[in-house]
Amino acid sequence: MTTRTPIKHLAALDDGPVQVSGWVETVRDQKKVQFIVLRDESGALQLVHPRSEDADAIADTISALTLGSFVTATGELKHDERVKLGGIEVKIETLDLVAASNPETPIAEDSALDKRMDWRFLDLRRPEANLIFRIQTTFEHALRTYWVEHDFIELHTPKLMASPSESRAELFQVPYFDTVAYLSQSPQFFKQMAQPAGFGKIFEVGPAFRADPSFTSRHATEFTSVDSEFSWIDSHEDVMKLHEELLVAGFQAVKDKHGAEIEAAFGVEVTVPTTPFPRIPLAEAKDIIAKRGYEVPRADDDMDPEGERQIAAYVKETYDHEFVFLTDYASSIRPFYHMRHDDDPSITKSYDLIFNGVEISTGAQREHRIEVLIEQAKEKGLDPEELDFYLDFFRYGVPPHGGFGMGLARVLMLLLHLTNIRETTYLFRGPTRLLP
Ligand code: AMO
Predict the structure, then answer these.
(1) Which residue has a Cα nearest atom 14 of ligand 1?
(2) Class of the 7-99 domain?
(3) Which CATH architecture has domain 120-424?
(4) Where along the chain do the CATH 2.40.50.140 domains lie?
(5) pTM assigned to the model
(6) Which end of the chain is less enclosed by CB atoms within 10 A, N or C?
């Protein structure tokens, strides 16, 4: 039984004997005295060893230490304001080399991102990387707490499917006994199925797969999708309300718990967004950015990444807000399951949520009237027979409902002003990355 104390708890202890474990970050091997900076998951600590004139086994161990090795030390904790690292140090009494590291460290602080990804387990030893996943834990926990307190049920929908879940584009196909299966691109159909199942309000945080061959800073072939879906809505406005309340809960928790650390590590002040977030119909957003001199260079009615940055800049200047809901996307560019406006079927009751200039989410009210749904599927060139299992949900009655899907790594990237979701994904998956 070990009596190891996490490093961050040492400062609160009185001077006296302690045991610590972690990996060796640096060694200063001087003639009279040796220093080790030891790091664990909670912080860093200076260990000190004054060399003895006689045979000195501890000194020999320290001299032979390779950086990154895991060690356990016991010794005397001493508070001393002169110690730069937290005002404490531990004078070594015993030192055990528990697991030695290869002497050559394959990455350095300035290594290229891709190289760091090759050695992700070493890259993640950086305290900022460790912090990112603490923030993610806090954020997800706050969202879950919100959902649970509001009577949502957590689901885990299957990721092996008999049909595409979003579209034939970006679809992974896998051999499945005598047939083929597809990897789920989104829990879309199954989160909707929870409505005729009578669950009322559900959420899921789970993997989604897209066979997207592009190398951008915000696309992965596997990502964590944060999804929610609920019944008895009047319009997509209700979905946006839930969405913004969840984000406020998540950001508040992150700010409360990590605000100071985030400022120190990333130079970013976390802003808890005010509600309601600005909402701008897409057509209006395009007019606004056109007036700012940017015409979206697309043949269809969609927005592009530069347009998203432009409208975000406008919203920041005008409303001092980091978020904007772009609403009412054209039916021509939205999936068949999005509900269209009664008075103008050329636009959908849908939105994209933009955070600091990048899309983090899509949401909508869904079409729940079976005849309309079939018509819309046909119009999109889909075969209703292939969708029959999904259409069946609606043949037995489904109340008005809606929901959203949100990319977790994108939220973290934008929250911390990082430039790539590879930094905020534990193990990134892309077209040329399946390792580690
Ligand atoms: P959409 O396809 O817009 O909508 O995806 C929702 C959100 O998921 C994230 N995302 C991705 N993140 C990383 N890499 C990718 N390749 C990737 N693709 C998407 C984005 C995006 O905003 N079923 C709908 C959601 C719904 O209507 O409920 C859907 O999947 O942050």
Answers:
(1) 219
(2) mainly beta
(3) 2-Layer Sandwich (3.30)
(4) 7-99
(5) 0.97
(6) N
